[in-house]
Amino acid sequence: MNTSQLHTATEKCELYLNKVKKYNIDHEILPSETKVVDRLLYRTLDMKPVYEELAKTFTDRQYQIFIDIILNSAAFWNPDAAKKLREDKAELLSVNNLISNTANELAKALSKRDKLSNLSGFSSDTHYHICDVIDAASQGNGHYRGFLRENLKSLTYQYDLKYWPSLSNIAKAIALDAEASNVRATDPLTEAATTSERTSKSDFLRAFFASIDQNTDRVGNGLPAGVKINDNSLSVIVNCALDLDVDDLVDSSYVKGVRQRLRKTNEKQKI
Questions:
Q1: Residue 143 pLDDT greater than 80, yes or no
Q2: CB contact set of 81 (below 8 Å; sequence gap of 6+)
């Protein structure tokens, strides 16, 4: 869009929003994104200056990409979603700690059972070979039974027990793996949204900026490099897309503060 089309900026953007909404409803997908669409459509007057800035800044395809970024970020990286992500991270850390402790205890128990079986004059007819465990665990796996089982049996007969790890050593390896685990985000937006320890509206903005960076023109069909939407427009996007209450509204200074903190963080990472 260009300045000669400025008077149609809101119409064009809302036409695209309605197109996204119809597609989602027709295909029964992304209800959380559709909810954000409804928020923006309801706040037409508030969003008008934002749409006008998009009209000055982007081509038709580029403003659609930018709107998609708003919808996606608000639907999946809003403060509530970021809070859940932090809880998931904490739970994963806790589970890895539990696995490490449990596997260490299992390793000790397996080692003790081996000694008793070898020295006490008694046996409990339990698994002692890793291949026996694999076979027992794979009884319901048709792929294993059809393609791998006989080959594994052949290896079991070909190489005696000294060539294979003991069950206690396998448990120790599981414990060490869990203890050395590095819990990290699997995508840039999740990483950006959960950088801080506490949940806030900044989570959305950090994910939003990360998404803009991901969609910046690198192969000729993204947002133009170096594009910057003004802080006032961004504050309107935050307020409308997140449907913030009057007492929670952000302004341009809030957005500017988030930008400055991100800039400092990025500069530190380059050192």
A1: yes
A2: 75, 193
